[in-house]
Amino acid sequence: MAEIVGWLEERLLSERHRLPVWLPVCVAFGVLLYFQPRHEPVFWPALLSAGFSIFILIYGWYRIGARVVGSVVLCLSLGFLAAWTECHRLPPMPELPRRAVMLSGHVRAVDQLAPREGAESGGRRVTLANVRFETWVDDGMAPLARTLRIRLRNDDPLVLAAGDELRVRALLTAPPFPVIPGARDLQREAWFKGEAGTGRALNAATVVTGDTGVGKRASSLWERLREGIGARIHSVLPGTNGAIAATLLVGLSSAIPQMDREAFAASGLAHLLAVAGLHLGIVMGLVVTVARYDLAAIEWVALRWPCKEIAALCGLAGGVLYVAMTGLHLPALRSLVMACLVVLALLTGRNAASMRGLAVAALVLLLTGPSVLLDVPFQMSFAAVMALIAGYEVLRQPLRRLHGEGGVSRRFGVHVTTLALTSLLAGGATLPVSMAHFGEIQPFFVVANLVAVPMTALWVMPAGLIALLLMPLHLETLALVPMGWGIDGIIWLARTVAGWPAARLAVPMTPGWGLTLFLLGLCWLCLWTRRWRLLGLLPMLVGFLSPFYHTLPDVVVAPDGGVVAVRDGGKLLVAGRSRDAWFERRELGQAFGRPVTEMSLPTSESANGDLVCGEDGAPGLCVLTRHGQSLLLRLMDDSDGMHIVPPGLCDGMDLFVSVSPARTSCRAIPRIDRFTVWREGAEAIWLEAGKIKIVSDRAWTGARPWVMRPGRHGVPNLPLAQAE
User: Fold this and answer.
1) Which 3 state secondary structure label does DSSP give 108?
2) Cα angle value 469/325/168 (rounded, 5°)
3) How do residues 413-447 score in pLDDT, each as one tens digit?
4) Radius of gyration for the chain, computed over Cα atoms and rounded to the nearest angstrom
5) Is the peptide bond before 602 cis (omega within 30 degrees of 0)?
6) What is the C-alpha to C-alpha distance for residues 32 and 366, in angstroms, rounded to an integer?
7) What share of the chain is helix, strand, coil (3-state, %, to 5)?
8) Distance from C-alpha of 535 to C-alpha of 539, rounded to nearest angstrom
């Protein structure tokens, strides 16, 4: 044991310059420790652990082992406490009216939506804050502490902008439960985003007057500026071109048609539609280049002023303005923190692109908003940047030797090689994250990025920035039209690559432990510098392959009880109807990585014969037999359970699943019906040899603050006390 400890201490001492970059990894594990329990944990054990770690650091500072142990425990405690604090400082999820209601609220943002299939124009979606419901029950109640997103009617001619007070009659919906245990949790996302739900307007909205306050007016003016710029872009570049241009320049991406989003996703170019480090780097690079050349053009300034440092500060100022203009999204904020550290390194003469800068950025985001750890942008952006920094640390010398003293052709070859390596490193590091969250692989992402990224950096973004500068002079058309030409080329490339065979390969749902194992292995590979870093390849491989060895359920009952899915070889058979059926079918297809096929009721039979419907003259009843277990499925019932299943059909069955209330049907066997999923959420059923395994969403997620009560009920918004 002593030899193992000595060997480990020797390794840690040899990598002592890399030890600080593991601090955010430990904080991230502390955040995960908070989200894992099925019941809300208490915070005092983390406080005790933090105090104990400080004691270890003080009295064992001169031993590397004590410093490592104390730092790890302290970071775990800080991550747990940060997540606990963020969760408990948010307001509870309110109880929304179950029927159409007249409401009023402060318009925080207005989003132009892409037209739906068959429609000529898209609608608008408003984000409302300080919402009040105009009913006798809600009279005197405080406004909602969370926001609502309302989709206006397509034929609503109302002209509105951020800062207006809106009044509309709408039908509201709370965030839905996961469609399968372990799938995407929209309730948790809404909790940490401060949202209460969504809705759709039932009539034309009206604008009412009211004092919005100085702070609200300031934010509203900024939103109006963004939306005004977006409107002027759309007036010059209609359709998809204008939507993408507005996304790149002001962060308004809701108007991009779904077909084009799918094409960008299939070709591996979806990152171009999300304002992040690439866009910020392009903007700052252009500003730095222009500023430095302008300063160098003045001889007196070039000889006396630190032009390089001044240009870097100008680039940072341009980056801050760009991030604010595009809506302060998380990937852009992460990149801005990194940019600040890079500029600070340039000013102090340190290495600009370093792993420590990335670690500081991760620490800042994890300690100020720990829930970002579970979001796709955080995972993808940090995995990509970490892989790029580590990759070019290893490849720097080979690339220099390849560059040599060659001419233009050799430099062009090095440039193409660098672009390919960049796409390969970033794409490879983020591929399992994309698999886990989007359920697919894009094998041709390197080819598409080789053309699209340089076109964006050298053509589209420079033209867009020039257009912003020309807008005060009403000459933006001169730059927006060439920008549209470049966007046309990128759209053509995305659609072409998306049309290639096997451009999108569906992948089953990745288990949480698989993604965690891959990211941990990636950290081990990238954060160390010695040969033992290669040990990280093993957990990366296991995490990457986990979706293909993870056993998916045989039957899933959706959380509203109206949709039932049956896994049948390479297909997913789905039957039933409900209000959220379209959403549930899409999510189930992504989770299983299989095409969704509608069952032909009342009579049908699966390809392998283990699912048979309509036998014995019972319409809507199916029998699934697999691994010696038999399920009786009632997939169609217009009587709301009043029609009792004949007792003879229940004999020999191991489980009865019904999209309607079971009532007195099949009382002698276990049952799952609409009331079961109302109480427990979605149900996943595995048919195994000798037993049936059932896991409910309630058992998976537990009782956490963001998990709503059965029926998607929240906390009543109690009225304020009456003034005397």
Assistant:
1) strand
2) 120
3) 777 777 778 888 888 888 899 888 888 888 888 78
4) 28
5) yes
6) 11
7) 55, 15, 30
8) 8
Q: Which residues contact 432 (CB under 8 A, 6 or more apart)?
A: 510, 514, 515, 518, 519, 540, 543, 544
To 5 degrees, how large is the angle CA 137–CA 141–CA 147? 105
Q: What is the mean pLDDT of residues 670-687?
A: 92
Map residue 200 onto helix, strand or coil. Answer: strand
Residue 644, sorted as left (phi over 0), alpha (psi -120 to 50) or beta, turns out to be beta
Averaged pLDDT score across all residues of the chain: 85
Question: pLDDT higher for 717 or 650?
Answer: 650
pLDDT at 627: 86
Contacts 24+ apart (CB under 8 A), 650-654: 653/623, 654/629, 654/630, 654/692
Half-sphere exposure of 134 (CA within 13 A, CB side): 10
Structure tokens of 337?
A: 């923190």
Q: Which residues contact 700 (CB under 8 A, 6 or more apart)?
A: 178, 181, 182
If you average pLDDT over residues 401-422, what whole number do you get?
70
The fold of 101-212 is OB fold (Dihydrolipoamide Acetyltransferase, E2P) (2.40.50)
Dihedral sign from CA coordinates of 583, 588, 593, 596: negative
Q: Is residue 588 within 8 Å of residue 612, measured between CB atoms?
A: no
pLDDT in tens, 148-160: 999 998 888 887 7
- Three-class SS of residue 458? helix
Q: How far is CA 407 from the centre of its chain?
A: 44
Asked whether the beta carbons of 650 and 665 are under 8 A apart, the reply is yes
Q: What's the rounded mean pLDDT across residues 600-629?
A: 79
3-state secondary structure of 576: strand
